[in-house]
């Protein structure tokens, strides 16, 4: 069900973005703007990804890189960062390191198998074997981007090898099903 929005509410929350100072914008206003953009521009929506029409994507890009990046409070908001990742993983770059290093963000990037995950890990997190094991179990290829010292860690290496084999088996099964289905048609 689509919520009806009054013109006044829309102006107050979206059109005034241009005239408000960066520090005056609130998370509520940004979320409202994102909701409205999604309603009017969504092409595809899943748990991990939201695809938008070009105009919608342009507005969201502007919102993340012009508004959020310039607003100290918004740059530290994990929920906005998670929401931004659904549009485009690159939006994580608009947020502070503290947000990028949040475990929820790291796991979200791992689920999307995004290479930016490597750059979001702090030095302490790169030494946290438990966290690395969790990430590698979701995104095995990240192992290849770790330091030589970490690649020599037997636990991480065996987990990577195990997950790599699982991924290869999934791909073989997918290709087999795909070609079998294609032959039928």
Strand order within the widest beta sheet: 1-2
The residue ranges in which pLDDT falls below 50 over 5 or more consecutive positions are none
Which structural category do the helix and sheet elements fall into?
Answer: mainly alpha
Q: How many separate domains?
A: 2
Give the beta-strand count.
2
Helix tally equals 12
Main β sheet profile: 2 strands, antiparallel
How much is the average pLDDT? 86
Order of helices and strands: HHEEHHHHHHHHHH
Query: If you compute it from the alpha carbons, what radius of gyration comes out, rounded to the nearest whole angstrom?
Result: 20 Å
Helix content: 55-70%
Distance between the termini: 38 Å
Outline: flat
Beta-strand portion reads under 5%
Written description of the protein model:
With 185 residues, the chain is mainly alpha-helical. The chain has two domains: 1-120, no CATH class; 121-185, no CATH class. The chain has twelve helices and two strands. It has helices at 7-13, 27-41, 54-68, 72-75, 78-87, 97-100, 103-111, 117-120, 123-127, 129-138, 148-151, 154-184; strands at residues 42-45, 50-52. A two-stranded antiparallel sheet has the order 1-2. It is flat and about 55 Å long. The two termini are 38 Å apart.
